[in-house]
Amino acid sequence: MKLYGSTTSPYVRRIRMVLANTPHEFLNLQILSGDDRVLLASRNPAMKIPCLEDDGQMLFDSRIIYRYLADKLSHAPLSWEAENQLTLIDAATDSFVQLLMLTRSDIDTSQDRLHFRLQRERIEEVFSALESQLEQGGFSGWHYPEICLFSLVDWVEFRELHSLAAYPQLRAFRDRHIDRIEVTATDPRQ
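Request: output the structure for the sequence above.
Response:
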């Protein structure tokens, strides 16, 4: 089993945490240029990470990879509630990725433009919903939705993308899990 990705991607990190106790090879790629970009294109025509190679199959997206691994590793299937939680987490992550890539392209995302407003609005709505779910006792275990939420919140902190001051439950959730072995082993700050 071979996982292609980057140590700084929140989507890759969640799969790395899922695979923490499963033998696999991790290829840390520099996906924006050079030979690693060529390698990525040869493995995943969508040119996104993560992608997983296993038993002659290529899987192209973290949600698909997780479904494959859950089946292979005999994890319980996700409930509809968990699927909805993942949709929220992925929506916020996608918006942050969009804003980060635009900023890295020297585009001022603080402007009052439709695309930027929509991304910021989505982030706030999702964070508010996740905060509320945490207040009501949600995300109380350590399964895939919790791993994904942790990956998002810690990545936001790592990249300094957004203040979490208005979201004490999200910060507390992150702090509760920060010392887990699979978290420390995949910390992008290393």
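The longest helix spans residues 80-104.
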